Structure formats: C-alpha cells, structure tokens
Prior knowledge:
Layout lengths: L4 E5 L3 H12 L4 E5 L2 H11 L3 E5 L7 H10 L7 E6 L3 H11 L3 E4 L2 E2 H12 L13 E2 L2
Parallel strand pairs: 1-2, 1-3, 3-4, 4-5
Antiparallel strand pairs: 6-7
Helix pairs in contact: 2-3
Amino acid sequence: MSVPTILIVDDSRENADIFRRYLELRGYAIRIAYNGADALALFDSVRPALVLLDVLMPGRDGWDVCRAMRQHPHGAHARIVMLTGLGANRAREGMVLTGADDVITKPIELPELAECVRRNLGQGADVGASPGSTPLGR
Length: 138
C-alpha cells in the first residue's frame, strides 16, 4: 500500500511546518503550499489524497481554492479539510457551500489533527505512530 500524500496549505509557515513535521512522523508524505496559486499548482501535479486548507489567506482565500479544487478533474478524488478560526457555525456553512469534506477550528490540537487525517483517509491508525499534544493556530 502506498503512503497517502497530504497537501498542507497555510500562509503561516510556522503552522505549516509544525503540521508537516507532526504528520511526517506518522508516516505521511507531505507537500506544502503557502498560498492559493501554489496550492492549485501542487494539487494538479501531486494529486494528493487529502488537502488541509487554511481559510484565511491573502489573495485567494481557502474557500475559493476549495471551489477551484473541486472543479479540477482530481477534485472528486481528494478529501479537503478546512482549517479556520472563524468559528464552528460559519466554518460548517462555508464547508457546505464550497464542497469541503470536513473542518477543524483553531486553535488546533495535534492529536485532533491526526484523528481528522485518519478519519478523512479512512484509516484506523496512523501510518506510523508517535503521540504528541501541542495547540496550534492563530
């Protein structure tokens, strides 16, 4: 079985790097984009199984990027999880309007992130495990 590739899209390099390190320790292949344009280019070339997509980014926001990903030929095959500090109700409304599959509200606890990744990839456990609990977000 091949290792699922996860595309992390966040304009906060610090958050993206923490997510990357945490998920790589669990055996996932990670690619990172820091803006919507780079995210769409990587989505096209990498064809990730899962996208962790920040909502509030300069330029193209996460909702717009999510809509564009859903229109891509690979869009029906990837799971998209929105990362947001907007609050649960507003996040869920945006999720429904853009076709996202799931949402995590900030601040994000790393075990919550790992559980969300497993759930959205249909896995019972991490590819390779190691515990940790650090809150993230802004």
